[in-house]
Each structure stands twice: as C-alpha cells, then as structure tokens.
Design brief:
The protein has 500 residues and is of the alpha/beta class. The protein contains 13 helices and 21 strands. Strands 1, 2, 3, 4, 5, 6, 17 and 18 form an eight-stranded mixed β-sheet that branches. Strands 7-16-8-9-12 form a five-stranded parallel β-sheet, with helices on one face. It has a three-stranded antiparallel β-sheet with strand order 13-14-15, with no helix packed on it. β1, α1 and β2 form a beta-alpha-beta unit.
Length: 500
C-alpha cells in the first residue's frame, strides 16, 4: 500500500510552515498540512489581546530563507507577524497544501504498510509515510481552580481567548498574573480602564526591550541591500547567545543581567514600596525573563494598583484576597499561562504495539531523541518537543535546526525505499535524555525556583539546557546508527532489519 502523501504535517503555525517551506524548496511536493482552524498562523492567529507582540526581534523571529525587509518595528506586533506568515505561504505556493478545518484526532502507525493513518474529526483518513507534529507548545490555556470562580457576575477570559467584543473602557479590571502576556496587556489597557488591579504571585525579572519604529528609509535600505538585514539578524542571534551564557553557568554574565534589570526597575518605578513588590528573590533566568519598555512605568499611574496578597476566593462582585479585602471588579483577565511541561495532545498518537504517546508521556514524563524523534513511534517527529524550548533566543532557530535534521531523516527513508521505516533506538533516546538532564547542573534552572518549565514531578521537560547554537550543531548531521531501519518487501509481506 502506497501512502497518499510522503509527508503529513499537523499544524500550520510557525513549525508547520518551517517544515512545508523546506520540503517545497527541496523540490518535494507530496505533502499535506492539516490545520484545525480556518486559517494558518497558530499562536499568532489565536492571540489577539491588546499589545500582543513577539519578545524576539523581528529580523530573527522569521524564516531564515524568507527575510522580511518590511518590518515596521524592531519587535513585530501580532497583526504584522500573522501577515508575514500568510505572505510567505502565498509566495511559496504552500496554501494549496493546507487542509483547513482539519482537526486531527488520531494518528495510528500501520506497521505492515510502514505509514501513518491520520484521521480528522469528521472521520476522514489520510495516509502519510512520515508524520510531523507541529501543534505548538503553548496551546492549552491554564486557569487555576479558584474558589468561587463560578459565582463571579462580571466578565472573565484568558489572555489567549480574548473577547474582542467586550470593551474595557471605563471598567474596573483585574489582571491575574505577571507573565509574558500580562506585561504587554497591562500597559496597553491601563490608559482606558477606570481602575486596574494587577494580582501578582511572583515578581518577574524584566529587562530592556529597546523597541523602536523602523522608518521608510530603513525598510528601503533593507530591500535594496538584503545583506544588511542578514548582518542584523546574525548580530541579534549572537547577542542573545552571549546573554544566554548567564543562564547556562556563567555567573558573571548572570550577575550583569541581574544588575541591569534592577537598575531598570529603580529608574522606572517611582514608589519604593511598589519597587519592593516588583523585586524578584530568585536567580534571574530561572523563570522566563520578560522584555518590556512600558510595563514598569505603568505602576506610576494613579489608576493602577499592584496586589501581592494571594487570592482567597471569587465573589459575585469581585475577588477577595488573603488580607480580607474585596476588590470590586467588572472584568477579570487571566494571564495565568499555559500547560507546557506535561504535554497532553488532543491528538491520540498510536505507535508500535499499540503504544499511546500521550499516555506514555503522562506516566514517565515527556522524552524524545534530540527533542525530535521518539522510540516506538517510527517515521514520526515532533517540532518543539521535549527539552527544545529556549529562555534566551528564537525558537524558530530551533525548529529550523530540527527540520534540517529531518530532511536528512527523510532522505534516508527515501534511500530505503517504499514501505520502510526508521525507529530511534530506545537506548539512544535514554542515553541522550540522561545526558540532557545532567546538563541542567550549574544552570539557573537548577537554582531551586519552581516554574512552568517543570512537570508535576519537578523535572524540566521544556527547556534545552544549553545554547541554541549547540542544538544546531547536535542536529547538523543525521546518524542512521541511532535508528532501527526496517525495509519491508511489500509483495511478500516480509520485513528486513537493515544493518549498517
């Protein structure tokens, strides 16, 4: 049985488009992209909250082979990033490969045919020889189970599920959480609301963003001299890598980053009592560092109140905090993050011998080989899988490193011929993950603070504990010896383990 397509890709966000682009540019046309929504874009389609923007500079937060000289700002805003993704897909003929409203609920590996049967919510099944998962790591909004939440009579929603039909103007609003979305939302809505209450559990380390508009002359310069944009991209990457040294063991760099952030706080927040509330007491980088030029100054406004007392319960009229005070509210915005470390796909992935990926990861913790391929799940790969996240640089660079590796993986499959599969050896995966966890020693992520990088067992399954340039080197060359290679003789229903 020949598969309907050589490659199937789940998700049409950045990851899915990274894969589709490289396949297209290599001359391969037998691929399909399954997208559950009616439009591409992933997180940049779904997140439409006020101030939504990237915290990686635009020249770097883009496809390496698709530079954009038309960015209007150093840090792209959500509408501009989404427009960029749509433009790239259109110019490269990717849209004809995308099946919209195709929500994949099950993917089952058929060993005899050496391909995946991919089934959508409508019951349609498509077979693909190689299945690439790109659902995105931050697609499951987390709202804590607050006492009395159901009694609140006002409006409430998560930042990733923004109600665009609800006006905040003149309202009494609470923002719960002070993470990456909150530091963009808070300064964006503060001027329009009557009163803004920011409920903070743990203060974040905030550093300079240095955002600025790119004028018409600058854009014209990049269009006429594209090498200048490439130089800028490389400079941003290596500067981020330099700062990243402060996360992976360089104490002097870590102290420098801490000093810069504390000076920023002192300069931008006038009230010393508020400054104390906003001062972190853990190692910088242990939790995600935030970049903002306007978050701290927002707390100088008279209509903004920072509350550090924990939430006791919700009432019909608002929120009661641990000090017994009731904060009367019209609306509550949950900036409470996502479930990331305990990966729980809505797609059921069934590998060899009926193994279920979600169940395995739930039982033992998420693991993969190079964060990409998984033992027991042949001809299968996961973009931004376990331990591929970064705390300092662009994840697009990580995804492109993975796809560089997977293009070699695909070439090896093609050499083996139709009806073949590659299954990473269990011992190779275990050895890699053992080494990986050892790399956390001496980094900021082993300094003792608790973060969303850790799963329920306290194991960091989100971050890659080294620099992005190190990951690029690790995935530079595909090693076929790390895989069991099976070539099937389709006519005789016989399979042969290939020994190299």
């Amino acid at each position: 049985m020949k598969a309907d397509y050589s490659v199937g890709i789940v998700g049409a966000g950045f990851a899915g488009l990274v894969a589709a682009l490289q396949l297209k540019k290599s001359g391969r046309d037998s691929f399909v992209v399954f997208e559950r929504a009616a439009e591409l874009g992933g997180t940049w389609r779904d997140n439409v909250y006020p101030g939504c923007a990237c915290d990686i500079a635009s020249p770097l937060y883009s496809f390496a082979d698709e530079p954009n000289p038309n960015w209007s700002r150093q840090y792209g805003r959500q509408p501009e990033i989404l427009a960029y993704l749509k433009d790239v897909a259109l110019r490269n003929g990717l849209k004809k490969h995308i099946r919209y409203n195709s929500d994949i609920v099950e993917a089952r590996f058929m060993e005899a045919q050496a391909c995946w049967a991919v089934t959508d919510r409508q019951g349609n099944t498509t077979t693909v020889a190689l299945l690439l998962m790109g659902p995105g790591p931050l697609n499951r909004p987390h709202i804590p189970n607050f006492s009395g939440l159901g009694h609140f009579q006002g409006k409430c929603f998560h930042s990733a599920q923004w109600d665009t039909g609800y006006s905040l103007k003149g309202k009494r609003v609470a923002v719960i959480g002070t993470g990456a979305s909150a530091i963009q939302i808070v300064p964006s809505i503060a001027p329009q609301v009557a009163a803004l209450t920011v409920l903070q559990r743990t203060p974040a380390w905030v550093t300079h963003r240095f955002d600025y508009k790119i004028g018409a002359f600058g854009r014209q310069l990049y269009r006429h001299f594209p090498f200048l944009l490439q130089i800028k991209r490389n400079a941003i990457f290596w500067l981020n890598e330099l700062f990243g040294l402060g996360f992976v063991g360089n104490k002097n760099m870590n102290k420098l980053l801490e000093r810069i952030s504390l000076l920023k706080l002192q300069k931008e927040v006038k009230d010393p009592r508020i400054r104390r509330k906003l001062t972190p007491d853990y190692t910088i980088g242990c939790k995600r560092i935030l970049r903002s030029d306007d978050y701290y100054p927002t707390f100088n406004r008279e209509n903004v109140n920072l509350v550090i007392e924990s939430i006791e319960c919700f009432t019909e009229r608002g929120i009661v905090t641990a000090d017994g005070k009731e904060h009367q509210l019209d609306a509550v915005i949950f900036c409470t993050g996502f479930v990331a470390a305990d990966i729980n796909l809505y797609t059921k992935i069934i590998g060899l011998d009926g193994r279920e990926l979600v169940q395995e990861w739930s039982d033992t913790g998420a693991e993969a080989y190079l964060g990409t391929t998984i033992a027991g799940y042949p001809n299968f790969a996961y973009f931004l899988g376990p331990n591929t996240g970064l705390g300092h640089n662009s994840v697009v660079h990580i995804m492109e490193s993975q796809m560089n590796y997977l293009m070699q993986y695909l070439a090896q499959l093609e050499r083996l011929g139709e009806g073949s599969y590659l299954d990473v050896l269990e011992e190779e995966q275990q050895a890699y993950n053992s080494w990986l966890q050892q790399q956390f020693k001496g980094t900021v992520w082993s300094s003792g603070c608790k973060s969303w990088y850790q799963n329920k067992r306290g194991k960091n399954t989100v971050l890659y504990p080294r620099l992005a340039s190190s990951f690029r080197k690790e995935t530079e060359v595909f090693n076929p010896m790390a895989y069991r290679q099976v070539r099937q003789k389709m006519q005789e229903d016989e399979k042969i383990d290939v020994k190299l």
